[in-house]
Amino acid sequence: MRTRLLRTLVWATVTFAGLCVVSAHEDTLIQLKGTDLVGLPKNYAPAEFDVKALHLRIGKHEMTFPPFLRSFFEQQHDLRITASWYHHSETLPPYILLHIQPKKKDFSYDLLLNLETLDLIEISVVLQTSDSRTRYLPIALRDQWKEDISKSIRTLK
Fold this sequence. Notes:
The protein is α+β, with helices and mostly antiparallel strands. The chain has one domain (about 25-155). Helices cover about 25% and strands about 40% of the residues. It is built from three helices and eleven strands, in the order αβββββαβββββαβ. The radius of gyration is 20 Å and the shape is globular.
């Protein structure tokens, strides 16, 4: 009886742990080589980001960042680009994340863009509150900023 109970508990624990691993999600690191974004699937080609011109192209969509988005790149910074197109979420489309870490600052910015349309999903200030805790503070967008961002996106033929 004790052996059966022990087996059942072990089986339940292993099954639960397996489900947690299966549902875990990690973004894919995208490398910037020159202006080419390397690491996205072919259906998002061409994929380019010109950091100097602040011009992003993914597939048939492109945008030149309007002044509001440009402001996040004004200070010297490190840039990390990640993306996810393989997650299963009803609320979050495939996306590309630009993580901008201003040098000598204790905060960073996350610009989350829809990978298929380049529409802005969210902008956040990211605070590292401790070694193990991170706090994301969404930035509320003025209507004019939303309009400027929307107008900056073009669909190519």
